[in-house]
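Cross-posting from the modeling subforum.

Setting up a comparison between two proteins and wanted a second pair of eyes on the formatting. Protein 1 (sequence, then structure tokens):
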Amino acid sequence: MLNSEIEAAIEEKRKDKLPYDHYKNLIKDKDPLEMAEKSTCPYDPEKQLFTVTLMGEEYKVKYPEGDVLLKDETAFDDYKPMTMILRYLLNAQGVPPMGTTIAYRDISGGNHYFKSFEGRCLKRFAFTFNYDVEGLKRAMEKLGAEPKEHGDLSYRFEFINNMYLTVILWLGDDEFPPESQILFDSNITSGFDAEDLAVMGDIFIPALKRLAKAD
């Protein structure tokens, strides 16, 4: 059993690396100053590095190689956030936050990918933090999130430079399971498509769980 689990983890890592390698190869064809302006991710021409902030953590992206590094410029291999960072640098259109929100189904392709979004984002968020409300509060405080008045708990926070999410949690009880909603600032489609957003829970929920831990 242990060997099969290890093999499955290795295969999943391999599959996650394929899109990362693909987008790495595209970075060199884009103007770094234009990417910096449209993404609001600062670019250092001398070091040839972008600084991208994802869930409150700084990452570095080498140009033109496309390597995504930790803040101290060391390598790591968590390919889902690494791919999301590259997707954003490549696709951002410089649209500022609008202060209005849209639901996942309002996004082109949202109906097609909704089942994935529901499982990986909505249900995962609800069942993770239904049992760790204080942890969620700690995480949001560390992110500098803005409390909202929806549901039992709700917050608006910056997912990546210039792109904001609003998460809403309705707590469950003995009769009803917990539920959640995730809304996006209306500028979200200027940086991501429905397929990107369907897997966003694989990135922001583990990040919130790390931030939820007491210091």
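Protein 2 (same layout):
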Amino acid sequence: MNPPQHASSLADQFLHDLHWVIESPSLINSAPVIPPLSLDAIDPDHLTSVMVDPQSRHVGSHRVGYYFERLVLYWLVHLRRVEVVAHGMQIKDDKRTLGEIDFLFRDEAGRLTHWEVSVKFYLYHPQHALSGPLSGPLGGSHFLGPNARDTFERKMGRLFEHQLPLSQTHLPDVEVRQAWVQGQIFYHRQLGSVQLLPAQMSPDHLRGAYLYQREINELQHHANSRFQVLDKPYWLAGPMFNAADPNWCSGPEMADTLHQHFKETDRPLMLCQADSESVQSESLPNESTETRLKRRPNTKRIFVVADSWPLTDSLS
């Protein structure tokens, strides 16, 4: 998915992604209580100007995490209107950097709050065990990132054992410490249901599917679906369906695109699939962004990985 160029399309995408950030279910159990998003309070032109401001932190970055942070920052500053004391604040001990605090803000009750925020995408891979070729740094998890060195348990350990305790040690005035993690877990149809989730993973998490390179031709059987490759950083809500958008293609066309991709690289790709119901519910003339967001199309997410995954060193 190429980033939308027209100002109104860009605003729609940012609003769509902001809605996803605030309203989608948490990936973890210990999520903070999030006030609902009021779409009426958002000025699309202002949101667009802030997100493309060249002075903004990490502007232009293709990293999904940076994009996610910028949307959270907009929500805190311009919608919740809380006092953001720091964003991306480095904690140092003498000349050594110990880590970085994502957000330090005073909430509506005046409590100094430390938030660590993250958006993550993991694939369920139950064959991955404590022994064998993936032991060592990859051992102990059945939930692997597109870069298999990134696991759900490793991320949770980093969040709760290192990042959040930074404020406890170095900022004693902090009253609230919380992790806010959004994202999605992808499952392969042949692997069955999850027998046991990690202790910190919410059972209500968003779910998608994944395919191996050798299974790409299965997409050709979805005659009534349209597909689009999602480019970073637009992995959050995905695109609104538009029949005139050339980025959407048929199943056979997408299969051809994927075959060519994996001839050149092992890099995983994320797809968005719009089914026949979504195809029939494209935007109407003069329809407001709020109406479109409330009538979100029925889309699915699919990760496509190389046959060598997770033994590949490909980065997500």
